[in-house]
Amino acid sequence: MARSSASSIRRYVPLLDWGRTYDRNALADDLVAAVVVTIMLIPQSLAYALLAGLPAQMGIYASIAPIILYAVFGTSRALAVGPVAVVSLMTAAAVGQIAEPGTDQYIAAALTLAFLSGGFLLLLGVFRLGFLANFLSHPVIAGFITASGIIIAASQIKHVLGIEASGHNLFELLVSIAQSLSQVNVFTAAIGLTVTAFLFWVRRGLKPLLMRIGFGPRMSDVIAKAGPVAAVVLSTLAVWAFGLADRGVATVGGVPQSLPPLTLPSFSPQLWGELTAAAVLISVIGFVESVSVAQTLAAKRRQRIDPDQELIGLGAANIGAAFSGGYPVTGGFARSVVNFDAGARTPAAGAYTAVGLAIAALFLTPLIFFLPKATLGATIIVAVLSLVDFSILPKAWKYSKADFAAVCTTVLITLGLGVELGVTAGVLISILIHLYRTSRPHTAIVGRVPGTEHYRNVLRHDVITDRRILTLRVDESLYFANARYLEDRIYDEATQRPDLEHVVLMCPAVNEIDMSALESLEAINERLNDTGVTFNLSEIKGPVMDRLERSHFLEQLTGRVFLSQHQAMRALAGDASDDSAADMIVLPAKNPQGK
Amino acid sequence: MARSSASSIRRYVPLLDWGRTYDRNALADDLVAAVVVTIMLIPQSLAYALLAGLPAQMGIYASIAPIILYAVFGTSRALAVGPVAVVSLMTAAAVGQIAEPGTDQYIAAALTLAFLSGGFLLLLGVFRLGFLANFLSHPVIAGFITASGIIIAASQIKHVLGIEASGHNLFELLVSIAQSLSQVNVFTAAIGLTVTAFLFWVRRGLKPLLMRIGFGPRMSDVIAKAGPVAAVVLSTLAVWAFGLADRGVATVGGVPQSLPPLTLPSFSPQLWGELTAAAVLISVIGFVESVSVAQTLAAKRRQRIDPDQELIGLGAANIGAAFSGGYPVTGGFARSVVNFDAGARTPAAGAYTAVGLAIAALFLTPLIFFLPKATLGATIIVAVLSLVDFSILPKAWKYSKADFAAVCTTVLITLGLGVELGVTAGVLISILIHLYRTSRPHTAIVGRVPGTEHYRNVLRHDVITDRRILTLRVDESLYFANARYLEDRIYDEATQRPDLEHVVLMCPAVNEIDMSALESLEAINERLNDTGVTFNLSEIKGPVMDRLERSHFLEQLTGRVFLSQHQAMRALAGDASDDSAADMIVLPAKNPQGK
Asked: Has the keyword Transmembrane been applied to this entry (chains A, B) (predicted)?
């Protein structure tokens, strides 16, 4: 009893598993990784808070408690949890509909959003509903991330140029930017554009350069990753030294010097009602992003993650964010890869990162008073443009027009109507396309390949058929979306054949017959019977047969169930006539009878 | 050119097809059917208008123009279009949210609902989107019809007892009836309960009685069908003769004596916005009911209906209703069966019925001044209780728990929260259950049956496996909802096998690989490669292979694609070791390794 309850605690608290074998080597590796990640996270966290429309310090707070809670409850050993670009954008979109950025209501709504999102993730995890995230198809995610990256980049142009601009979609945003171009602040633009160019160069050109002048590849990588920190330091110094804040360069300004504060989400039912849909979307998107990162990293070390436990880890992280001055968080791609590459071996690395960030929140915040928002905007632009990848479009076009339609819908609606509608439309269209495709399954009228016991499509092969027997092979499970199509198909074929005596449905690819399909089979049986035709089945799979035996269908069936199609043909041709061979005709390929 | 345009007109106007061969015999049969149906339709139409909260004559008007338009554009030869119970209830639910019954706004909203519903059906028909109706699974429809029948019957109790009662769901309605029981009008209740008992007896006992006293079965049937007419005549006479209208018996009262008036639906965008969702639901439910009736009847004579053309026929009928004082209509089960049994051979029978109803509207309406509403309520109760059929519940429970869940949800939500939410919830839950089921497809680790080239599930058979090779057979098409599950499954198995060198995915039941699944296969390939394991495929179907060849997957594949599983095993076992036979082990059935 005690043992089983201990193992059930361990199931929900993976820390108890890896914690027991933690040693000095793992500690050293984790500490190194934590230092690297902390340096990278400081500017990134400030920037994403800006993107979410929140005070800069909330980005740091959102990385501290969540990272520790994820370390306790999460299963990935390298995932780094905190603010990420897409979730920050979605937070801004959701909270922006309720309150003005900069107000207390705005902050309260962001905390509440994190709380609801965490609660929803926890619920999904406890009920093991992680599979719901599968309804986001890969092309839809790819399209959504690309479109979000474009919107995020566009939303930061105003910070880089020092202008006012706003809009509910990409089009409005770009028009608003174009109209404000005359008000560009030259000092801001100089900093913003320089930093942007610098960061692009760091990303593309610095590492090869360092390696050419003799640094090792690992060291070059670490230095290149510190590029954004250099940009932050240099641009802050420039603003301070030249007094640019007085010349209209917007800076982060005063940030309270403190550990994450204890905050409370709102429990107003009205606010909950307004935020629930957004919380669900943010949770699902965040979960999908996080799980794919975690899976990629785990697979590299032949480790496993448990998606349902990940839900609990991310849920705890978000609830932690709600109570510690943060906003919705998830496992980020960039920071996790850095963590992994820097050698993090256990989730403890995340906890050390949290300590590093707490120290930063306590002691470094006065130093960023003069940090220009243009630098943060440039950091975001360079980070998200790496998410923008239109190669999904030609790839989808070539592989499948249906997937192409889903990507295009997602991209266009995300750009034109916003992130929430975009991802909802993407999910709906994927499901509709799937249902549409399976609602018209591939079917083939089959006949016997001469000299064999194989039955193949009459359109593709020269096969022998019998005009009294129609055999239809259906290459899909039978369920509500295609049940009626099957009826139509059989009646169509049956009405064209005046000599018809038997219909055989060949089911080698039918993995499931749901109740709608069962009723369609009953209807087919009955209606064929009204016209004096028997209805038979062949090659039904074991589990499907088990289920059919629990219904009354087999008792009502006018024909029989045959183990193989060849048995069916021999028995039915024999039933129909003693001289069956004479009735057999060889159909040429592409016979019009088969349509 | 001329010929193709003529055939394209014929496609949209089936009248041009059957009209050319119409002869005197068909005319005679159709006329007989029309008389029988007209007699049955008069009380039914009045009653359904009452159910919809509309003036009684609108039920008659709703049968005239629609029946003629359906005769021109519809494909079923026996379908009788007009007001039906469920659609009348849905009309009352939708319109009741916008206006008070008895007001002009209420009538205008009902006309507009018919117009929107007709427009939606036409759109679906022109774009050949009839398959959308397939998303209503059979158990959901059965549950919805049963729950609607209960609500309709409960809603008529007030008319039968002569009390006031209302409620937005079954519970409220029953409470309201219970609270008003003290106000029962004894005269109304006497008529209502007598008629109800009489009609039940007519339905159950009259036909056998008539046959016992010497009438032929056909004649007995016709007399029994006229039972409601007798109830209408007798109860009207009773009210008139005993002056019961002055004693509180509610009657139909003055009804304008006219042909259907020319009416106009509203074109107010606000009203359209409020009614669109209801119009969509009514269209879909009406279409599903109508098509299943039409298909059943057509199959009995080896005729065919075209569901997409049916959409156009029903769309035209509803638009006709909107312009001629009607409300949403569809093909009704009871009236169509009567029409068919009475011998209707072409849609012209419907047109003659329309003429009969027009004559009734012109000359018979004064006679129904004293027709008690209690009689109409009783007619509805007896008609709809035949729709109530709980046998779907045990049947679904036995056959499939998932379908059972869908039925229960639909029934409970329809009863508790109303018809519109009920059917929406039913559709959503069917789709969710389908996605859930296919998101965890049946998979099996397979091994070779000794002495054969067959590969079967290690859990069910004593088979030979190789610890360096893992073969997983997946029994479902691969698409977004199960792509991640497949990844999980393969990584789970792979991490348990330290000696693993090759993974083979056996795909004989895979009818489709969508782009999400393709990317999952790419991820599996890459992640297995990270751990030094090759990824191979076997027994891929032709169309699936065609599609894979359009991607870069096959170039990246670390392993190979094998035509058969046996080829795969021979090649991979040979690759791995020259002494492969020594590595083969015979697993017992139910081996825990396979889970």
From this structure: yes
